[in-house]
Amino acid sequence: MFRFILHRLGMAVPTLLLISVMVFALIRFIPGDPALLMLGDMADAQSLAQMRSSLGLDHSVVTQYLIWIKSVLSGDLGFSISTRQAVLPLLLERFSVSATIVLVAVALATLIAVPVGLFAAWKQNSAMDLGLVAGATLLLSIPSFWLGLLLLYAFGIKLGWLPVVGYVMFADDPLKAITYLVLPIVTLTLVEFGAIARMARASTIEVLRLDYIAHARAKGLSEGAVLWRHALRNAFAPTWTLVGLILGNLLGGIAVLETVFTLPGVGRLMVDSIFARDYPVLQGCLLLITCIYVLVNLCVDLLYPLFDPRVKL
Amino acid sequence: MHHYVKKALYFGVPTLSLCLAALTLQAGEPSLIKVGFNGDIRSTEPGVNRDENSDAFIMHIVEGLVAYREDASVGPMLAKDVTISDDGLTYTFTLREGVKFQNGKPLTAEDVKWTWQHYLDPKTQWRCLPEFDGRGVSKILDISVPEPLKVVFRIDKPNGVLLATMSRPDCGGSGIVHPDSVAADGTWIAPIGTGPFTLGQWKQGQYVELNRFKDYTPRAEAKPDGFTGNKQAFVDRVRFVVIPDAASAKAALLSGGVDVLPDVTAMDEAELKNVPGMQVRTSPVMTLGGLLFQTRDPLLGDVRIRRAVALSLDYSQMVATLSNGLSTVNNSIIPTTSAYYDATAHTGYPYDLDEARRLLKAAGYHGQPIKLIVNKRYPQMFDMGVLSQAMLQAVGVNIVLETLEWGAQLERYQSGNFQMMAFSYSPRFDAALSYESVTGNKDKEPRKVWDNPKALVLLREAQSESVAPKRQALFDQLHTLMLADVPMVMIYNGTSIGVVKAGIEGYRSWPISKPRLWGVSLAATSK
Q1: Segment B175-197 mean pLDDT
Q2: Where, by residue number, does the polypeptide cross the bilayer (chain A) (predicted)?
Q3: At CB < 8 A and 24+ separation, what contacts does A85-93 make?
Q4: What are chain B's domains?
Q5: Topology (CATH) of A85-304
Q6: Nearest CA of chain B to the CA of A175: how many Å?
Q7: pLDDT digits (tens, 9 = 90+) for B390-401
């Protein structure tokens, strides 16, 4: 397993290097000049040139890349063009916000959706199954921002139970922090519940058709034992892959939800940095997202044998 | 005697207890107003690494020698008075006595001189340096301190907009700061100004706070007047909460998450004004919204086509739609709230489709596509483009909308690489500054839309002139010339719409649009 981990991490190095080149080049192909965005419609040519020079944008793209990659390799992601903050601490701070919401929401969604999917598969084509599938499809179809705004309206404005905007760090005030996190976590849980439940149901139906399940039933095992002991473990493997993909995707930022709930997460940081053409922050965000994808996929692969005994690393 | 003591104790003790309780409550719970901001501030340095929100924020902490009044004219702020020499080359500012910095030290003319030297140092990267180092109308030659409370600026050429430029919010109001605001190596630490609020906690991406400056020395006027007047703060803290999404900001206002939204859309205004407990504050502002033409374009180089476009737009209908009936038509680059907006400036383009068709025919236009750049970051620019496209179809002008991201549009504006563009200039608070933003030599400044030598001469005169009637005559000539040249079609100035919760007293919208939290109180604390 150790060799597998080393091999996978080794494979990630050229991927990250390639991504770094692509990210650096693509960002600079986007029309728009950060210096111009900072100076606005009153910029004269000399001020613009001075600003570009002070931001290091007067060097060639290759030189800029070499300067940046050298800093990255020494653990320095540079400074934000907009706020002059160091990028690495900024990213870590923002990532902790996104990660808290995503990890809790995906864990909750998985814990609820897998048994629901299993149950729906067991009761396939019954009214209960149809109801659960319809509910999951509905949740899957609702745009997250709309669901977020509905919950904001209901629990924030109408009932006044939860705060509508803002964020409190868990370390500062745990109880208050929870009140700020409830709505985004519930929204994300509901949205992801649909996808995970449908996958759990579909993969369980596949497994329930297999001969070994019929064999287990023929042995006289109870339906509970058949489902939990024999069906769940095999059926969970594809669902686990989906959970891994969802995690990788969401940990890269939940920009829409972060905007709706005014959370200072990494997704909002990335969107803001695109609008401001804040190259160092954007490069840092994309590099972080790539690393997360690599690590999440590695973790999923490492955990796969736990659910599917046929898989060996 | 004993009876009186008993009576005094009977009534006095509870009264005293209530007073003490009230005081304790007041001391324990400082008054706080929460204001919604659509983005975080960029820095706390006046006029450096700034944007609209940074400007609005910093104007609560620092004050300049002069500042904009409520009607966008310029009045003294830290200065008691300003005298200009007959040749227009020497400006003498006499400072108010007793003004203190937020670190407790008294304001002196030496501090003013130090601050200005700091701004004029290119290393500071002050946004407004080009306006004072000779690239603009004039250059500051020397700043001297003849007396402890007197500072003298000498410039190389007469400059009718010197004080207006000094007062610009994007220049940080040229706010005077104490030298301790800057470290020994020249790096910025934090603003130590003379304003009614001090810098509080800044949680980046979440909120930034102001604390009341208890030793603030207000001007003698009875009330606030724009960025000047009596700027006494009545609340202990102001928190600017970052809420980028407009729908979330509205939800925050309705749920009590914020008390003030300084800038809502006309559509939200229509909804919120009917919500009990909400008060709407509107004011015309000095943004300049309109359509820009590239006059060097083979097609739009023909003034007849540009004029035909100008005559084909139903401005009343367009502005009513764009602003939900809150703004009025203005075909002049001088904002309607400016002191220089007179009857001549009020003259605009008639709505004359027959004449437009005649001009197009005479110009040989036969439906060639004209690209009009719009963006969706600023919905009013997009809507302006869509409405123009629909109205111009009536005379056979074939407008093709090109939707760009704002940063990309700004780049095209800067390079002059466009045929037509729906655009909104940020506010210019002097008529000469408005004309300056659009007039210039395209070879040197491709972003300038009006390249007319006669207009440039008139503009230079207006920039140097300080006498109001003479300036008015020059602006009238410029307007008439612009209507004939049609390098752009000005359509309207926007409206600032603020919404405040009931119980917030003293908050007003104004032509400069920026929120001001001095002079604002919570109903309970103000009584």
Answers
A1: 96
A2: 12-30, 97-120, 132-157, 177-200, 239-261, 281-304
A3: A85/B204, A87/A280, A87/A281, A87/A284, A88/A284, A90/A269, A90/A281, A90/A284, A90/B204, A91/A266, A91/A269, A91/A281, A91/A284, A91/A285, A91/A288, A93/A264
A4: 2-246+498-526 (3.40.190.10), 288-492 (3.10.105.10)
A5: MetI-like fold (1.10.3720)
A6: 18
A7: 999 999 999 999
